[in-house]
Request: fold
Amino acid sequence: MDNFYKDKEEWKDVTPVPQDDGPHPVVRIAYSERFKDCFDYFRAILKSDEKSERALQLTADAAELNPANYSVWQYRRFILKALNKDLKEELDFIKEIIQDNPKNYQVWHHRKCLIDWTQDPSEELEFTEEILHLDAKNYHAWSHRQWILETFKLWDGELAFVDKLLSQDLRNNSAWNQRFFVISNVSKIESATIKTEVEYALEKIKKAPNNESPWNYLRGILSDHGMYKYSGLMDTCQEMYNNNIRSPYLIGCIIDMYEEMLEDKTGDDDTLVKAVKHCKELAEQFDVIRKEYWLYVERSLVCRFGTNKDE
Reply:
């Protein structure tokens, strides 16, 4: 924006529409003069429903001043359609905006609309990877990537991409979530898949047992099958515990398996006692910040599965 719109000869035919804050605004926003000028003219073209090249440029200037303004992007899309504009140019435009504003709902939605129109996702995985390289936990980039994968069935290579991210940072909870998203969409979670994914999660857990993400992933993979029923999982967890690993996520997983045993009536006489013991040690030593939660879990287990002699 080189000049104010009010000073441009080609805009002399337009009467700007000031923002109406009512007769007695409580806290008037201190907009810059450039901001007020641009949006006064934006409201004017919105009012007259003008769809022209100059209106398109005006929306670009307005978006630069406030990329989170939904109305600007929505009206820009109306103009793009009315003028039958080259959407490749628009994709390049919104790419630059996203690079400057990577955590903005409206700019990602605009790009999604463009891809929905063109039905060409060829650049999207590379683009989202570029954004995720800047911030591997950018929710907007992941959401867009998931939409692309699911809509255009571009699953090939996605697990390799996720594995690369986890090799760089095994605490990347967004990458763990993406792995579960892919597995859930490309294959039924049956015995072969479960075996592969449990082994994958345990491999990462042994490297960093205090990392919550793979423990949650393990629970998700086994959610419909039962953790204690998976051969060797309890033994693996007990071995880690016996090796003096006191990760609250390890102990919490053991408690969950004991609870499953109690629900299925497959535990021994000491199952409840052991579960209560672990709840106490988490509350008193290894997860004190969640003390009240573990005391609640202890009371719940005793209430559901205890007898008078257990109380």
Q: What stands out?
A: The chain has 15 helices and no strands. The radius of gyration is 28 Å. The longest helix spans residues 191-207. The chain has a mean pLDDT of 95.
